[in-house]
Design goal:
The protein is of the alpha+beta class and 332 residues long. It has 12 helices and 4 strands. It has 2 domains: 216 residues, no CATH class; 57 residues, no CATH class. The chain is 61% helix and 8% strand.
């Protein structure tokens, strides 16, 4: 007698393992941009670590060997040795942080938003139980997290390299703390500008819905915004004033204005007659003034400008969501 054994098999499909959802899809679609960002951060970090350690040490040793370790060195002192050349190259690579906002704007406008709207892949995602609002939120949140992580790391390393090179800056012509690229890379502004680039790019992509026009508009829009914000920087915090009789006070810090002072304390245009007693008396000039920001104003200026940039970021993101809602209606 044969016994028939029936084995019941479940028709349920076992859930697939591994990452799923919008985040995973986005990382997979834009994996080349992700790898480029990882490579950029790695190169910048390596260059800044070199500046912080062996690069600065080798350059300092080279200067000391040439007798150039004094502020009163002569014209014959050579500052073009191989060690300082390598240090300058590494410092330039470390300055890649300054190009991140422009790269983020161009990528967000062209590939992240503009291309997907142009090719119809965004509309396909919206038809598959992904609302436009969730789609845009993922498009902004994932790159924002990666940008914050990468720029924060590079900013910390840039500050480390900047502080380690302080002895060299005292004897060799070097960029000052208030120069645009140094000011951006040494504080919170680097991360804020990267987020600004992302937000401006996303808004440009939603407005134009075509990759190349959105890429160009995002890049131009970001440059205009950053130039406008940078022009406000000297006026975001009260300046300090130095005065001196007979000649100008020392030239120090971020200078905003200087000129001559009359006996009544009024500020007038410099008559250009320093050391000419009669000329100074004829113009009633008793001294000179100079308005400036000392290095102690770095963080007040940095934080105030960061707050303004983040406010612009919030407005751009809000405008992007409202524009998407207007174009997609109740689906958002």
């Amino acid at each position: 007698m044969t016994t028939v054994v029936t084995i019941e098999t479940s028709t349920a499909v076992a859930p697939s393992r591994g990452p799923r959802g919008l985040v995973w899809v986005m990382l997979r679609v834009h994996r080349w941009a992700l790898w480029f960002w990882v490579l950029l951060v790695a190169v910048g970090a390596g260059a800044l670590l070199f500046v912080h350690g062996p690069g600065t040490d080798a350059a300092w040793s080279e200067y000391r060997a040439m007798g150039c370790d004094s502020p009163e060195v002569g014209q014959a002192c050579d500052y073009s040795g191989p060690a300082i050349s390598r240090l300058g190259l590494a410092n330039s690579l470390g300055g890649l942080l300054n190009f991140v906002p422009l790269l983020a704007a161009a990528w967000a406008g062209g590939a992240l938003i503009g291309r997907e709207l142009e090719n119809g892949t965004a509309q396909l995602a919206w038809a598959q139980s992904v609302s436009p609002a969730r789609w845009l939120a993922a498009k902004l949140a994932v790159p924002a997290a990666l940008l914050v992580a990468g720029t924060t790391l590079l900013t910390l390393l840039h500050r480390l390299a900047w502080s380690s090179a302080a002895p060299l800056r005292s004897i060799v012509p070097w960029r000052e703390w208030y120069d645009d690229d140094i000011f951006l890379a040494n504080g919170t502004l680097a991360t804020a500008h990267a987020l600004l680039g992302l937000a401006v790019g996303a808004l440009a992509g939603l407005l134009l819905r075509r990759a190349l026009p959105a890429l160009a508009a995002a890049a131009v829009g970001l440059l205009v915004l950053t130039q406008a914000l940078g022009s406000l920087r000297p006026y975001l915090w009260p300046v300090e004033t130095l005065t001196q009789k007979g000649m100008y006070p020392p030239y120090t810090g971020m200078v905003l204005d200087d000129g001559a002072l009359t006996s009544t304390g009024a500020r007038v245009e410099d008559p250009l007659c320093i050391n000419d007693t009669k000329c100074l008396a004829d113009h009633d000039i008793v001294g000179f003034y100079r308005d400036y920001h000392p290095s102690s104003h770095f963080w007040p200026l940095q934080l105030v400008e960061t707050g303004i940039v983040l406010a612009v970021v919030a407005l751009a993101v809000l405008a992007a969501f409202r524009l998407l809602r207007r174009r997609t209606g109740a689906a958002v």
